[in-house]
Amino acid sequence: MPQLKRSLLVLSALVIFMAYSGLSFAHEHKQAKGKVTVENAWARATFALAKTGAVYLSIDNQSENNLKLLSVSVDSTVASDAQLHETQMEEEMMQMREATDGFEIPSGSTLEFSPGGKHIMLMGLEKPLTTGEQFVLSLRFENNKVIRVPIEVKDAR
Ligand SMILES: [Cu+2]
């Protein structure tokens, strides 16, 4: 039985490695101890005539360096523009605005984009975002690193 347990452990570690290895740039940054991983990346399915969409994900910075996410982009076949947005209370209403300075991700911290909070906004959708389809979002950081993240479209929970 302990042997089975161990192989299950190895298997799940392998699955996690395979899931995140493509999204990490630890391998390009050999002096860094930890790594940067992007997790839980998804976009909310839209209705048929929607012109905007939202993408959510988290970026875990376990490297020794502070990071700054400067901007995001998608292929023009998906949307004409992608922006970093934050939400704040204005006149007792939740308003969103573009975070033109980007977002800091200090070493050891996680930047979360989630419904109701920071989000990535797709403007000028070419077609609706349909459940089950995928597209690629590029994250551009201050150190000129770009991470390309597969985004899966899901129904909102
Ligand atoms: Cu927005």
TrEMBL record:
Gene3D superfamilies: PCu(A)C copper chaperone. The keyword Signal applies. Keywords: Signal. Residues 1-26 form the signal peptide. Pfam families: PCuAC. PANTHER family: BLR7088 PROTEIN, COPPER CHAPERONE PCU(A)C. InterPro entries: LpqE-like, Lxx211020-like, PCuAC_sf. This is Copper chaperone PCu(A)C. It comes from Glaciecola nitratireducens (strain JCM 12485 / KCTC 12276 / FR1064).
